[in-house]
Amino acid sequence: MTTTDCVLEAIEIRKTFGPFEVLKGVSLEARNHDVISILGSSGSGKSTFLRCLNFLETPTSGSVSLHGQEVEVRNGKPANPRQIEALRRRLGMVFQQFNLWTHRTVLENVMEGPVHVKKEPKAEAREKAEAFLQRVGLAGKTNAYPSQLSGGQQQRVAIARALAMEPDVILFDEPTSALDPELVDEVLKVMQSLAAEGRTMIVVTHEMGFARQVSSETVFLHEGRIVEQGPPDEMFSHPKTEVFERFIAKVK
Amino acid sequence: MLELFSLGDTGWGDEILRGLLVTAQLAVTTLPVGILLGFFAAFASLSRFVPLRALGVGYTTIMRGLPEILTLFVVYNGVGLLLNSLVQWLSPEAGSIDFSPFAAGVIALGMVFGAFAGEVLRGAFNALDRGQIEAGRAIGMTNSQVFWRISLPQVWRFALPGLGNLWINLLKDTALVSVIALDDLMRMTKVAVGVTKQPFTFYLLACLIYWVLSVLSELVLAAMERRANRGVRRA
Q1: Distance CA A103, CA A97 (A)
Q2: Cβ of B139 and A145 within 8 Å?
Q3: In order of start, what are the domains of chain B with their CATH numbers?
Q4: Which residues of B sit within 8 Å Cβ distance of A?
Q5: B16-37: per-residue pLDDT in tens?
Q6: Which of B138, B149, B150 sits opposite A93 (nearest CB)?
Q7: How many domains does chain A have?
């Protein structure tokens, strides 16, 4: 594997909240077309790790590089806010609680980033936004407000909003955990089709089916450390550690 | 009786209307001053920097605890004194200057409005969902884009009913400036009463005018709230 293949690389990410060390040095490398599922029980630090990748949490130490460009952290602070904005422009993020802007229509939500962050012409951004909404199966909802949509529809809009930035990697933070069970599938299907398109994705999830069938690599976090990592089939059929074995037994 | 309200030399209509104009000017000039002070007060009270927070909390607590009329006296007399001693100090030959009652009214009422608005806005900022802001950051918005495009429109929605109340209070509090000899609606009414000895007629007229102003304001506010709440599910 050549180094140019590597899109996003996190090295030795540590994060402490007060006296608690939530992440004890986590490293991860995502290459083009990787779909990496991050698993772990609650409190394992998996969401915190994902949020460190786009600096919604600032790591206490460690580094994140996108295409070899490193965002430096000095004394627990990012050295340059411009660097972080540039990083975020190329990393999509899908939240557990969707976080669509309530005062904007569906179309405005999707167009916001391209128009105001990437400074694309409005007409072009609108055309693309409509295409992305069609892509997630919501072409008819462009003028609706988020509050008029179901959770599954809101999350699909949130995915379209992330796609509209044409990111190098999309981060998913437990994208189906806030959904009613009958709405989970429509979101997973969209994610599965994105994976099939060859998009690079990092997904924190409790959906073991998705982790096993869709991801190219799974990572198991426990108490702030990666304890197992590898291709999902191998990992699930031959767990190497007792904690992961217990985890699989519990979530089944 | 209609003669009393006529616009010519024989009636009080033109005087009252001029008073109304002063009242409206005072309220409209005070509003942006008050809102701006309110934002400063809210930012200060939400700041993590302790001295700034103390300043914000101190300002809102003190101003809300004072009777408006006292604030007005303190500003009118105090700021006048301050200005004059400043002028004396800068150029001892210059004569004394008069501090305009209109400016005193704007400053005093603005400070009162700002203290209450600070509390309304602080609550509104606290009600803001952090996820909304994170979603903005996550697509690479700058802090100022997040503030202007996401935080402010939503804070506005939460704060509008409270600010609307304050506006109506402000309209009525302008009547206080009549005591520092500003020729507003209230003072012109008092003058008319003094000359005609018909207190009931003119006070009733003043009531009617203030009430019409409030009703008009409420209509505008209701329209603004409908606009600010677009997209929000009715509870």
Answers
A1: 16
A2: no
A3: 22-182 (1.10.3720.10)
A4: 129, 131-132, 134-143, 145, 149-150, 153-154, 157, 230-233
A5: 888 889 899 999 999 999 999 9
A6: B138
A7: 2
Examine residue A213 and state whether it is found in any structural domain, yes or no. yes
User: Are residues A127 and A5 both part of a single domain?
Assistant: no
ipTM entry: 0.91
Shared domain for A156 and A81, answered yes or no, is no
**pLDDT tens column, B64-97:** 999 999 999 999 888 888 888 888 888 877 777 7
- A192 in any annotated domain: no
Give the closest-approach CA distance of B125 to chain A in angstroms.
15
Say whether both A130 and A63 belong to one domain: no
Is there a domain that residue A142 lies in? yes
Residue A187 lies in a domain: no
Residues A79 and A111 in one domain: no
Rg from Cα positions in chain B: 22
Q: B87, B97 in Cβ contact below 8 A? A: yes
Do A82 and A201 reside in the same domain of the chain? Answer: yes
B142·A93 Cβ contact <8 A? no
| Set of chain B residues whose Cβ sits within 8 Å of the Cβ of A116 | 141, 145, 149
Burial class (CB in 10 A: 0-12, 13-18, 19+), A145: buried
Are both A82 and A206 inside the same structural domain?
yes
Nearest to A103 among B142, B143, B153 (CB): B153
CB contact under 8 A, A145 and B132: no
- What type of residue is A70? E
Residue B135 has pLDDT above 60, yes or no: yes
pLDDT, tens digit (0-9, with 9 covering 90-100), for A116-162: 999 999 999 999 999 999 999 999 999 999 999 999 999 999 999 99
Output the CA torsion sign for B165, B167, B170, B174: negative
Q: Which of B133, B139, B148, B224 to mutate to test the interface with A (most CBs of A within 10 A)?
A: B139
Q: A117, B145: Cβ pair inside 8 Å?
A: yes
Q: Domain span at residue A125?
A: 99-166
Q: What does the pLDDT look like over A225-249, one tens digit per residue?
A: 999 999 999 999 999 999 999 999 8
CA distance to partner chain A, nearest, from residue B128 (Å): 11
Cα A247 from Cα A227, distance rounded (Å): 12
Instruction: Classify burial at A91, counting beta carbons within 10 Å of its beta carbon; exposed 0-12, middle 13-18, buried 19 or more.
Output: buried
Question: Which of A115, A144, A166 finishes a domain?
Answer: A166
